[in-house]
From TrEMBL:
Organism of provenance: Trichinella nativa
One Pfam assignment: Aminotran_1_2
All copies of domain Aminotransferase class I/classII large, residue ranges: 1-212
Keyword Ribosomal protein: no
Protein name per UniProt: Glycine C-acetyltransferase domain protein
The organism's place on the tree of life at top rank: Eukaryota
């Protein structure tokens, strides 16, 4: 079995799924993909990493969340061949020893899936805002890591003390953003992790960029 995230949460990097599929085919392996940071918003219509690469249906097992972009706040799911799902129902300890989800969570999650199946306007809106943020930030001289289409936008500042101070200064301009440093991320890769949402307006995005620009000048970055 080959197990991978579809998108890695701290860097916004996308796994090389086509290469993984080729490797699995070569060695007759099963592929399990964790799509918690892709479900509902990544790919042209929000179907995730498979859709992004244009190879939908190539992964054997997908594990994902009903929280994050799906808005359910808790719970998750696994999809795959019936025989494997039946086995998990009998042998998976987290499934066996977890309480059932509250009906309200199930209902809201089903509605989120229905909205996603109906149209892709939210995914398209998110991609547009992500592109605006990444492009404008790079024009200001910031290094924004991760895949160019993914809304996890780590702004790499290279110094842990600077990252903390920068995040604190952003708050003075109405932007709440968290600075991450070691041991959460490697010692040489502290960053402020910005996450764009479809719920953000383009004015919100511009306000965030403007705040980064102001703090950049204040701290002479």
């Amino acid at each position: 079995m080959i197990v991978s995230d579809g998108v890695f949460s701290m860097d916004g990097d996308v796994t090389p799924l086509p290469e993984i599929i080729n490797l699995a085919n070569k060695y007759d392996a099963i592929v399990l993909l964790d799509e918690c940071h892709a479900t509902g918003f990544f790919g042209k219509t929000g179907r995730g990493t498979e859709e992004y690469f244009g190879i939908k249906g190539s992964v054997h097992l997908i594990n994902s969340t009903l929280g994050k972009a799906m808005g359910g706040a808790m719970g998750g799911y696994t999809t795959g061949p019936k025989a494997i799902i039946d086995l998990l129902r009998q042998k998976s300890r987290p499934y066996l020893f977890s309480n059932s989800l509250a009906p309200a969570v199930v209902g809201s999650s089903l509605k989120a899936v229905q909205l996603l199946m109906k149209d892709s306007k939210h995914a398209e809106s998110l991609l547009r805002k992500t592109t605006i943020f990444r492009t404008r930030m790079k024009n200001l001289g910031f290094k924004v890591a991760g895949n160019s289409q993914h809304p996890i936008c780590p702004v790499m500042l290279g110094n842990a003390k600077l990252t903390t101070e920068f995040a604190n200064r952003l708050l003075e301009f109405g932007i709440y953003a968290i600075g991450f440093s070691y041991p959460v991320v490697p010692k040489d890769k502290p960053r402020i992790r910005i996450q764009i949402s479809a719920a953000h307006s383009e004015e919100d995005i511009e306000k965030c960029i403007e705040a980064f620009s102001k703090v950049q000048k204040l701290l002479n970055v």
